[in-house]
Amino acid sequence: MNMAWRGCFVKLTKTELINSVSTVSRGCRLTLHPQQKCGFRKEARKPETLKRNSGTPKEKVPPPSEAGDAVVLRKAARPPTGAPPPNASPRHTGKLFKPFIFTIGFTGCSFGAAAVLQYESLKSRVQTARDKTNGQASQDTTYWHNWWNQLTDFQKQAILLLSFADDIWSGLTEGQQVASAIIAVNAMVLCCWRIPSMQRSMLKYFIANPASKTRCLPMILSTFSHYSVIHMAANMYVLWTFSSSAVSVLGREQFLAVYLSAGVISTMVSYVCKTAIGGRLRPSLGASGAIMTVLAVVCTEMPEAKLGVLFLPVVSLTAGYALKAIVAVDAAGLVMGWRLFDHAAHLGGALFGVWYVSYGHKLIWRRREPLIKAWHGVRSPGPGGRGGPGGSGSVGGRPGPV
Predict the structure, then answer these.
(1) Residue 306, H or E segment
(2) Do 51 and 57 contact (CB within 8 A), yes or no?
(3) How far is 108 from 102, CA to CA, in rounded Å?
(4) Residue 337, Ramachandran bin (φ over 0: left; ψ between -120 and 50: alpha; else beta)
(5) What is the largest CA-CA distance in the chain?
(6) Is 289 within 8 Å of 353 (Cβ atoms)?
(7) Who's near 119: CB < 8 A, 6+ residues apart?
(8) Which of 61-75, 138-152, 280-294, 332-346 bottoms out in mean pLDDT, i.e. has the lowest?
C-alpha cells in the first residue's frame, strides 16, 4: 500500500515539473523575442502608418539617437524672440568699431600735420626774406652763374625744359597746384589698376568694403582710386573747378587736411549706412565723398555765387540752391536704394563740409595754437632761439570762415 502511494506521488511530481518547465520556456519566449520584434516593427511602421492615416506627406521621424540633434538644429535655426534680423547682424555691426577709431585718429592727425606744415612753410618764407635783406642773394646769384658755365649743352637743355615746366607751374593758382598734385596721384592709381600683377593688392587696399577683412586703410586709399577713366575725369573736373575758391578760403594746408579727412569720414558714413540697411554689402571707390566736401565748403561760404551747368551754359543757379539740390538728390537715392552711386558717401561728404564751415573751423583749426607752440619749442629749443610764427589764428592764407 505504501509502495503504491509512493509511486503515484513520484509520477505526479514528475508531471508537474515537466509542465512548469515547459511553461517557463514558453514564458521566456513570450517575454523576450516578441518585445524585440514588436519594438522594431513599431519604429519601422510609424512613418508608414502616419502616411496612410493622414494622406499628406509627413516629416520623417529620425531615430532616437538623432531626434535630439534634429530638435536642437531646428531650435538653433529659429531666431530667438527680439533678436535683430539677419541683415543687421551684430557680426557686421561690431566690425565698425575699428573704422570709427581710425576715422577719429586719422582726422586728428591730418589737422595736426597740416598745422605743423603751415608753420614750417611760413618759417621758410621768413628765412628767405631775411637772407635777401642780408645780401646773401647776390652771393647765391654769383655761385649759380659759375655753376651754369660748367654744364654741358645737354644738361643746359634739360634744365631749360625743367625751367619751362616750372614757369607753367608758377602760373597756376595755389588751389590749382594742389588739385594738380591730387590729380597726378589719382592718375597713378588708375594706371596701377591696369597692371595684372597688382590686381590682388588693388582689390584689397583700394576698395572700401565694410565686409572685408581690411577696412581701415582702404578708407583713405579708396579716395584716390578710380577704375573708370570717365569716373575719374568727372571727379577731377569738379575738383579743378572748385579748388581755387576752396584754397582761397581755407589755405593750402587746411584744405589738404579737410580733403583727406572728408575722404575717411564719407567712407565711414557709407560703412554705417550699408551695415544698417543690410543685404549685400557692395564695395565702393572714388573721390566723390571728398569732392562733395570741397563743393559744400565753397557753396556754404559763397552761397550767392553763380554756378553753371556742364553742357548747359545757358542754365545757371546760385551755389546755395545747387548744394541743396545735390543733397536732395543724394538723399532720395539713399532712401530709394539707387545703386548707381554711393549716395551715403556723397551725403556724408556734403554734411561734413557744411559742418566744418559752420562750426568745425572754430572748434579745430582755431585751437591749433598749443600744438604749434609745442612744435616751435621742439624746433627752436632754449630761450631766445630763432623764433618762428607763434601760431596765431591768421597764419597762412585767409583766416577762414567765421
Answers:
(1) strand 306-309
(2) yes
(3) 10
(4) left
(5) 166
(6) no
(7) 372, 375, 376, 388, 389, 391, 395
(8) 61-75
Q: Return the DSSP state at 341.
A: S
By the 8 A CB rule, do 270 and 289 touch? yes
- Do residues 378 and 370 touch, judged by C-beta distance below 8 A? no
Residue that is written with C-alpha cell 614757369 in the block: 167
Q: Residue 110: phi, psi to the nearest 5?
A: -65, -45
DSSP 8-state assignment for residue 121:
H
Cβ neighbourhood burial of 366 (10 Å; 0-12, 13-18, 19+): middle
Residues in the chain: 402
Q: Chain-centre distance of CA 213, in angstroms?
A: 11
pTM of the predicted model, to two decimals? 0.70
> Around Cβ 47, how many Cβ atoms within 10 Å?
14
Cα torsion 101, 107, 112, 116: sign: positive
Cell of 48: 508608414
**Which secondary structure element, helix H or strand E, spans residue 316, and what is its range?**
strand 312-318
Confidence of residue 171 (pLDDT cuts 50, 70, 90): confident
Residue with cell 577713366: 229
Burial environment of residue 78 by CB neighbours within 10 A (0 to 12, 13 to 18, 19 or more):
exposed
Q: Please, which pLDDT band fits residue 79 given cuts at 50, 70 and 90? A: very low
| Active site residue ranges | 288, 346
Bridge partners (DSSP) listed for residue 308: 316
Q: What interhelical angle do 288-301 and 229-250 show, nearest 10?
A: 40
Our CA angle for 165, 290, 231, nearest 5°, is 70
Residue 398, φ and ψ in degrees, nearest 5: -75, 150
Dihedral angle sign, alpha carbons of residues 233, 238, 239, 240: positive
Q: Looking at 251-379, list the stretches that DSSP marks H as alpha helix, in order from N- to C-terminal side.
A: 252-277, 288-301, 319-336, 343-355, 361-363, 369-379
Residue 267 has pLDDT above 90, yes or no: yes
Query: Helical H runs in 32-173?
Result: 33-54, 64-77, 90-93, 97-133, 136-149, 153-171
